[in-house]
Specification:
This protein is an alpha+beta fold. The chain contains five helices and four strands.
Length: about 120
């Protein structure tokens, strides 16, 4: 079983609220415990999401490989070709000088960083 102080690993960066909720549900359904950072900022002040590097999805190090496998199977639904509506909204955001809401899921590469090495570097 996992210890209460097991090292957390970033397995993904998410930039959309809907993608984040879907990924959290997928991982919970597979029994993988998760923690997210910047979730509240992404839901209430989405225009800061890009500046804060989105929502970081963290899992215990022992579950990182399983989480990456589940995320690797994630395929968003194809979007329709409503280019006129998309163009209208982009122009409206541009006119209001507000960036459009960010979207996307980016799976982090596996890294081998030891906390003892980080402390020794200080």
């Amino acid at each position: 079983m996992q210890g209460p102080h097991e090292h957390l690993v970033t397995v993904a960066q998410l930039y959309g609220v809907s993608e984040t909720a879907l990924v959290l549900s997928m991982l919970a359904g597979n029994g993988i415990p998760t923690t997210v950072e910047s979730w509240h900022t992404a839901t209430t002040a989405w225009h800061y999401s890009l500046a804060l590097d989105g929502v970081r999805l963290l899992v215990p190090a022992g579950h990182a490989q399983a989480a990456r496998e589940v995320l690797g199977s994630f395929e968003p639904a194809p979007r329709g070709r409503r280019w006129k509506l998309t163009l209208y909204f982009l122009l409206a955001f541009w006119w209001a000088t507000v960036p459009p809401p960010p979207r996307g899921l980016f799976i982090a590469r596996e890294t081998h960083v030891d906390a003892a090495d980080d402390l020794a570097a200080l």
